[in-house]
Design goal:
Layout (H helix, E strand, L loop, with lengths): L8 E4 L7 H12 L2 E6 L2 H4 L12 H4 L2 H4 L2 H6 L1 H16 L5 H11 L3 E6 L5 H5 L4 E3 L2 E8 L5 E3 L18 E5 L8 H12 L3 E5 L11 H7 L3 E6 L11 E4 L2 H8 L2
Parallel strand pairs: 1-10, 2-3, 2-8, 3-4, 8-9, 9-10
Antiparallel strand pairs: 5-6, 5-7
This protein binds 2'-O-acetyl adenosine-5-diphosphoribose.
2'-O-acetyl adenosine-5-diphosphoribose binds next to helix 2 and strand 9.
Length: about 260
């Protein structure tokens, strides 16, 4: 699929109405050989997990620098862990929604499909997605700060806070904090996908956190069509061929119908 020089068609999404832009985006997805999807907190919002920046957003209630930086963890690992333990307990009580399930079902049809997520909640896995590039890590993973061993720990509440590795070292959440690099192999795969796809679908992200926010521009500059699904306008809107304003749980099942 070639580069589109037409201006973006920003379609207000009308529930129950098969808008022209939704039809066009659906047909682009059906005809594409290689598709990538980038998701953000918005896709999990309808599962009951607050986003970061919207009304009721996590970073409107808590200060990121006290909870999601290596410095905060070095200062007070127990405090940081209590917050992550609380978030794990919230996530454990909810489940994937129709948006997550539509993506998992689409992957299962086969074909060249890459799912990239900034979410650490694991809801794509629970919906049945098999190959998820978790560019910001995974809240269900713990990593030793001494020996580097990673382990999966899925209990909603940890028995020991902060937890320790069998080597005795302090463990940290297996997520990416502000000021940290992304996991290099996962990020490499995400960038490679963005350079080689026909369509990038960007779902429920404010697209303000870099470097992930740059993936839409990377894909566009390599000739991909960009389709956005979001309740609001974002920096991706200006490069999107189709910007569908609606909720992920409503729009994705229609796009992949
Ligand atoms: P944000 O909270 O910044 O943005 C959520 C986006 O989802 C907004 O653009 C909303 O308009 C949109 N949205 C909300 N509900 C929606 C729905 N039901 N359907 C569709 N869209 C909806 O979350 P992210 O962009 O994911 O990083 O944030 C990026 C990163 O910032 C996160 O991965 C996290 C955070 O700090 C780390 O933890 C490293």
């Amino acid at each position: 699929m070639g580069k589109s020089s037409e201006p973006a068609r920003h379609a207000p999404y009308n529930k129950g109405l098969d808008s022209t832009a939704t039809c066009a985006a659906r047909s682009a997805l059906q005809n594409a050989s290689r598709i990538a999807v980038l998701t953000g907190a918005g896709i999990s919002a309808e599962s009951g997990i607050p986003t970061f920046r919207g009304p009721g957003g996590i970073w409107r209630t808590y200060r990121a620098e006290n909870l999601a930086t290596p410095e905060a963890f070095a200062r007070n690992p127990k405090f940081v862990w209590e917050w992550y333990d609380y978030r794990r307990s919230v996530i454990a009580t909810v489940g994937p929604n129709a948006g997550h399930r539509a993506l998992a079902a689409f992957e299962q049809r086969g074909g060249d499909f890459t799912l990239i997520t900034q979410n650490v909640d694991g809801l794509h896995d629970r919906a049945g997605s098999r190959n998820v590039l978790k560019v910001h890590g995974d809240i269900w993973s713990l990593r030793c700060t001494i020996c580097g061993r990673e382990r999966e720990e899925k209990s909603a509440r940890l028995t020991e806070l902060p937890p320790h590795c069998r080597c005795g070292g302090l463990e940290r959440p297996g997520v990416v904090w502000f000021g940290e690099a992304l996991p290099s192999s996962v990020w490499e795969l995400a960038q490679r996908a963005a350079r080689h796809i026909d369509v990038l679908l960007v779902v429920g992200t404010s697209a303000v956190v870099h470097p992930v926010a740059g993936l839409a521009h990377l894909a566009k500059s390599h000739g991909a069509m960009v389709v956005e699904v979001n309740l609001a306008e974002t920096p991706v809107t200006s490069v999107a061929d189709y910007s569908l304003r609606g909720s992920a749980a409503e729009v994705l099942p229609e796009l992949f119908a």
